[in-house]
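FAQ: What does the model actually see?

It sees only this:
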Amino acid sequence: MVSTKITCNPPFLDHYKPIFEDSSKINQLRDNQKQQVVEECDLPLIDLSGLRSGDKAERIACMAAIAEASSEWGFFQVLNHGISLDLLGEMRKEQRKVFEMPFERKVSSKLLNDSYRWGTPSATSLDQFSWSEAYHVPLAMISKQNCCNEFNHLREVMEQVAVAMSELSCTLAGVLAENLGYPGHRFTESCNKSTCFLRLNRYPPCPFSPETFGLQPHTDSDFLTILCQDQVGGLQLMKDSQWVAVKPNPDALIVNIGDLFQAWSNDIYKSVEHKVMANAKLERYSIAYFLCPSYDSTIGSCRESSLYKSFTFGEFRRQVQEDVKQTGRKVGLSRFLR
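And it is asked to produce this:
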């Protein structure tokens, strides 16, 4: 049994008491984690200055590296990505301020258009639970009036970050579409501010169980994700049927392929399962941008003979939500196989 004397913001142990009092489930999770081999890895590192090069061969080589990493890893890192490190540093500073508020205020203030989320309401056991909190904000909502006036600068910085990450994500998606013979500018035309998201994440220290998920294993339900993380570490991804830990790189952003791109590419690009492990002593911060199409967009396939049934992004989201509600887990793409 976990001691409820441990205090934390948010109050995970109080609110999810039945999960943390089930010692058998906790021990089972610990045993499962100990059996998994976790090696540390360096993700493929790609210098995006090649995309802006006047040398055609250099640009082609950069595009090929992006496509290869998306097929072999589903994850890669980018340098010279065009987003100011000073801007990202300012975002981290403002992000820390908002998460340092008392829990009661985060829940009641409706900050950033009531986008605050914490824990996992659907969880019935510890292996379905995420020890984290977040603001998950549609781009269209960032600029709307904030009821907490002292965080106006946060909103301003978020707008700048969202614009920069949107440009980068569209560039990368265009490269990946072009690699498969599809016009890149047409590929992202259905992605808009109402369905693309910026997510501010905080993973509080979890002193009682280093085996607890900061974010449970999952794939992303988008075209692609851009991640800016701090240097604490904790991100792990599935590679060759085993978990590998990603070494933080202070100069790089992480990019990963989502379910929609895997379906559209007919499994050429891979949406890879990943997770975040909680840290016993240190809190972890990250910022994620999710490139998503409009809800009525049909995903389709770049190949005539598709592995997947035709579906819209809205249908995919509803199926994911229903599966999580019924089973506590996302099923994802396998629901739409022919």
